[in-house]
Amino acid sequence: QVQVLESGGGLVQAGGSLRLSCTASGRSFYKNVMAWFRQAPGKEREFVAAINWSGAVISYGDFAKGRFTVSRDNGKSTMSLQMTDLKFEDTALYYCAVDSTPYRRISSHGDEYAYWGQGTQVTVSS
Questions:
Q1: Which of 21, 38, 99, 118 is least surrounded by CB atoms within 10 angstroms?
Q2: In a 10 Å sphere around its CB, with 0-12 CB exposed, 13-18 middle and 19+ buried, how is residue 88 labelled?
């Protein structure tokens, strides 16, 4: 049974930093794209970042560029998101998503990802 588990969320002041982690288990995902999405109350789900199997191809949502860094452990089904200079508008539930097909291109579309975690809450106080 596939499980996707996020951790690392919490409450932080504006300008602070947080590091989110994601682990996928139940089968091997080290050849699969992994991604972060977020959703704030009353808003649509939003693409944050994605990373391919080797870590050589990365994409960010515009708001994340220069502030967020996505990475993964080579040969493992784990991924991290380092977030710096957090803003009030970064407050959201952050989800980890995993593609079911190995070696595919990264995508910013949630429909491309088959497996999702329950999310970890990030709250930024102004």
A1: 118
A2: exposed
